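Run log, item B.
One chain of 125 residues. Sequence copied directly from the ordering sheet:
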Amino acid sequence: QVQLVESGGGSVQDGGSLSLSCAASGNIFSINVMGWYRQGPGKERELVATITAHGITQYSDSVKGRFTMSRDNLRTPLFMHINSLKPEDTAMYYCAACTGVEYMCVTEQTTWEYWGQGTQVTVSS
């Protein structure tokens, strides 16, 4: 019932910046938490950023201080601004949405039901 489409990925040099966007449609008010996952080569998917319906954000230790989310008109579009990119940030980035209890979503104790197709970010040293 929710559709997510990411854009904004690309190839940048070490230390560069870029912005990703996620457009949500459908029953967006069923969403309690939105966020961004990433999966690098040979790595497991990692939840790097979350934002609640009230705009409260959390970031993983690996990206905190460099990644910042923002949005217009509550929930969509959702932006993620990335500064000081490192080669280890190279990954496919996925926008995702969770309709469960807020705490359960943020702590990954429940399933995130909706996913975008992903956008590739590549950082060269």
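Observations after the first pass:
- Residues 19 and 81 are 4 Å apart (CA to CA).
- The chain has a mean pLDDT of 95.
Flagged for discussion on Thursday.
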